[in-house]
Amino acid sequence: MITPVALRSTSLVHSQVERLRRNLQTQLALADPDPGQIHDIRLCCKKLRSCIRLLRHKGDASHWQQADSALRLVSRQFAPARDAEVLQHTMHMLHNSTRSNPCRAACLQVLQALQHSRPAAKVKGKTRPTSKDVPQLLADTKLTEKAMGKGMLLTQRRCLRLACKAFEGHTTTESLHRLRRWVKYLGYQFGLAALPTPANVKTRQQLAVLGRTLGHIHDLVLLQQQLGALNLVDRSAAALVAVQANRLSQRLIAQADLATRALFEI
């Protein structure tokens, strides 16, 4: 899949990045963001970080690094509240994936425990990016289509290396997580910089499907890590949920393997 991509004009990319920055500032100004707004904050951060990975081969690397670190810090502050929301969605998915009545009952018990242990969504003293923001860095680097094209090729190559590492050898949670992050970055880059040609639209859709599948795997792993800390009346419920989560994870890993090989032609 490592091929040049038909790109949007640089002015359109600038305007999209500026809109992301304004959206992020608006969301961060909220005193008590709800789960949907927290998701929007983290999504804006990820899209801006994907832009950094598109262009950090240009200009002062330290400035790009500062902007990336600031966005990562903002996103991480909302991670516990977002994880709590995701865990509940994951339990619903797990409940719907089985017809076993004991397993479904266990899923409902775990879901209730998750709802009672959910952390507050409010984050006090939210950190805002204080270094040069991404739109300013784009202006400083004199953004060109050639630079964007090179950045997308570099991201594609990174994804290909991570895909080979994840599925050509021993698949690990960490290797899948790293692939997931970069697949999402590449998908955001296609949305930001690529023209909506049939080939680009198809690739973006494939990246979205693969990203969601890898995301479900990540969420199931997170769930299994949290089971031991839950206050459950019947501890056997955690064991049943863990078994079902592992079964579903294995099915999703097989699906991700096939999707990865088709997308990256490995």
Question: Care to give the gist of this entry?
Answer:
The protein has 266 residues and is mainly alpha-helical.
Number of domains: 1
Mean of the pLDDT scores? 87
Task: Tell me the Rg in angstroms.
Answer: 20 Å
What is the fold named in CATH at topology level? CHAD domain
Q: What is the CATH level 1 assignment? A: Mainly Alpha
Number of E-type strands: 0
What gross morphology would you assign? Answer: globular
Distance between the termini: 9 Å
Task: Assign the structural class, choosing from mainly alpha, mainly beta, alpha/beta, alpha+beta, or little secondary structure.
Answer: mainly alpha
CATH homologous superfamily grouping: CHAD domain
Q: Topology, please?
A:
Blueprint: H1 10-28, H2 35-55, H3 61-77, H4 79-96, H5 101-116, H6 134-140, H7 145-167, H8 173-193, H9 198-226, H10 236-264
Helix pairs in contact: 1-2, 1-6, 2-3, 2-4, 2-8, 4-5, 4-9, 5-10, 7-8, 7-10, 8-9, 9-10
Description:
The structure is a single chain. This protein is mainly alpha-helical and 266 residues long. It has a single domain, classed as CHAD domain (Alpha solenoid). It has helices at 10-28, 35-55, 61-77, 79-96, 101-116, 134-140, 145-167, 173-193, 198-226, 236-264. Helix 2 crosses helix 4. The chain is globular and about 60 Å long. The mean pLDDT is 87.
